[in-house]
Amino acid sequence: MRIDTGSELSVYGTHVGMSSDNISALDITGIGSRLITPDGLTVSGFSRVRIADGGFVASGALTSWPFEYGVSTIELSGEATSMAVRGHVTLGQKNQASLYVHDGASINAPTALGYLGPHLKVLLDDGSITLRQVNLSGHLSGTGTLRLSGGDFRNYGTIVAGSSLTIDATSRLKNAGTIDVDNGSIIFQSVYDCLLDNTGTIALRQGNLLFNTINDKTLSNGGDLIADFGVSHIYGSVANGGSVLALADLDIHGNLLNGGVVHNNGEMLIHGNLSNATTGVFNLGAGLAVVEGDFRSNHSTLATELTESDSGHQYGALQVGGEAHFTGDNTLEIKAPFRHTFQLGESFELLTTAGGIFGDLTLGDVPYLDESLAWKLFSDSHTLTLSVGLAGDFNDDSAVDLADYLVWRNSLGSRESFPAADGWGPRGVADGVVDHWDYDIWKENFGNSAAVSAAPSTGTIPEPASWLVFVLSGLVVSVCRVRIETIWSTCCSYVQTHRAALFSDYTLFVRRRPCTSLPMMDAAEGESFVRPTTESVSGRLAGPDRPAIAAPL
Q1: Helices 402-410/464-472 angle, 10° precision
Q2: Could you tell me which residues belong to the region Disordered (predicted)?
Q3: Confidence at residue 70, expressed as pLDDT on a 0 to 100 scale
């Protein structure tokens, strides 16, 4: 049936295609051509409704009949072409249906609820659709405007943006499906704060998300946000509780608050601040992340990946234009997806700041190193560097010797930022405190140097007596006996060894009980202050409850 040349048809209701195998067509074309159907317009079977060149349809509801077979098509084209709908819009629930609005045409249903089913394809090509609320389970694509006059927009299907798709909403947008922006843009435009809640997938391929308002949660991501080609932009702030995967370049024109996982293998530019909140993991990957504002890490994890290329190592780095603050327990993890033997002296500048580094960061999971080597984390006021050094070389002079013991002794118990003598821990890495683990690694590697670290050691771990003889060799006189005088007090025990000849089979130790602190050697004469009074002094001590952890006298 055709309505054209200014004709008008008024009927109570219109059903195009009465059965699943029916083939029907309805054309309303030309300025002034009108179809008035207050009870609604229904399409089913293999039917087609075309409104073009200024035609107009006024309908109560717009529906597709729930046959499981057939393909129904509704097409509007031309600037003066429009459809006004007072009831609901329900299309594509069971049967295949297409809604094509292009070349300036429009569907206006400001009070209607839109149920765009899983079998519906909506194509906007410079057209517009206005609904009060939309539940989309089908497929929306193209270039045009989807306008919501008051309700929510919930997407459970797929949205594919063309060069510019505008979603004009006055309420919250919720995506549980897929939003795919391929070399185009989605503009979220509203007179109110337009918030996008994502629990599905947003994929940007040289694509842009533009918000007309910028706040801390313009985009709230609890799903997957992926940028995997070209340079993509988010003009707004992102609050991430899900996953952000930047395989290509991603610019965030706002802040990034991360409580989920961010993995960067491209170049990520954050024009605001970066906050890595509790349980958040920010993995620099093998890419570069640049933050124009401040970086704050609170009980979270910073990670990087070391990879190989023809030009050598590639690794993830973070550049901060403001300050870097570490609050609480923060961990640095190192990933090495390739089998590689790290060499002494290799270093990686992971973090640089213009405003300074404040707070503590300890090492978590790290790649395996040779037993004579250790990962070292060093920070000056503006740079954080990871390097491969000698285990137990606390003063970084390429040798494990008595000078390193003095560094350990003078900083025992220290929890300051990046202590030099923090080279060991319960898991074999720096743990942020100078303690007996660090003493153990110094003792086990005593005598190692950069010259011999490349080859496996064939010697034995030096006994304390051997280096004690070295210390006291200039002080020993020809005395044939050893006299020990012990004075106990309420606060400490004072042990003094008078200058004496030392025998390898009689070397004094101070043995630490399980509840006491480590002893400290205070003078080459052999004086040692031992705290508290529960310490014991004897010959070469042994004990079933604890191995001797002591400084030799």
Answers
A1: 100
A2: 531-553
A3: 77
pLDDT tens string 205-234: 999 998 876 566 689 999 999 999 999 999
Q: What are the tokens at 177?
A: 């499906």
Q: DSSP secondary-structure letter at 513?
A: P
How many residues are listed for the chain in this entry?
Answer: 553
Mean pLDDT of 410-419: 74
pLDDT tens readout for residues 73-117 = 999 999 999 999 999 999 998 888 999 999 999 999 999 999 999
Q: Please answer whether residues 347 and 387 qualify as being in contact, where contact means their C-beta atoms are separated by less than 8 angstroms.
A: yes
Tokens 């185009």 found at: 184
The string of pLDDT tens digits covering residues 314-359 is 789 999 999 999 998 899 998 886 667 788 888 899 999 999 999 8
Residues 232-284 have pLDDT tens digits of 999 989 999 999 999 999 999 999 999 999 999 999 999 999 999 988 999 99
CA distance 391 to 384: 19
- b/e map of 432-444 (b: 16 or more CB within 10 Å)? bbbbebbbebbbb
E strand or H helix at 437, and its extent? helix 436-444
Q: From CA 276, how far away is CA 300, in angstroms rounded?
A: 6
Cα separation, 328 vs 334, in Å, equals 20
Whether 300 contacts 327, CB under 8 Å = no
- In whole angstroms, how far apart are CA 178 and each of 93, 157, 201, 455, 530? 19, 6, 5, 55, 67
Tokens 């009465």 belong to residue = 18
In the chain, where the domains are located: 464-538
Closest residue by Cα to residue 238 from 195, 287, 190, 284: 195
Q: Residues 427, 417: contact at Cβ < 8 Å?
A: no
Q: Is the dihedral of CA 494, 498, 504, 505 positive or negative?
A: negative
For residue 223 the two structure tokens come to 């799903």
- Say if residue 164 is exposed, middle or buried (CB neighbours under 10 Å; 0-12, 13-18, 19+): middle
AA identity, residue 220: S
- Give 284 or 363, the one with higher predicted confidence: 284
Q: Which sign does the torsion angle of CA 266, 267, 271, 272 carry? A: positive
Among candidates 56, 97, 106, which has minimal Cα distance to 79?
106
How many CB atoms are located within 10 Å of the residue 149 CB?
Answer: 17
516, amino acid identity: T
Confidence at residue 413, expressed as pLDDT on a 0 to 100 scale: 79
Q: Under DSSP, is residue 146 helix (H, G, I), strand (E, B) or coil? A: strand
Examine the pLDDT at 128 and tell me if it is beyond 80: yes
pLDDT tens-digit profile of 443-466?
888 888 876 554 443 334 444 444
Asked if 11 and 17 count as a contact pair (C-beta separation under 8 A), the reply is: no
Average pLDDT estimate for 377-399: 85
In this structure, what DSSP letter does residue 421 have?
T
C-alpha distance from residue 211 to each of 102, 252, 271, 526 (Å): 24, 12, 15, 73
User: CA-CA distance, 227 to 332, in Å (whole number)?
Assistant: 25
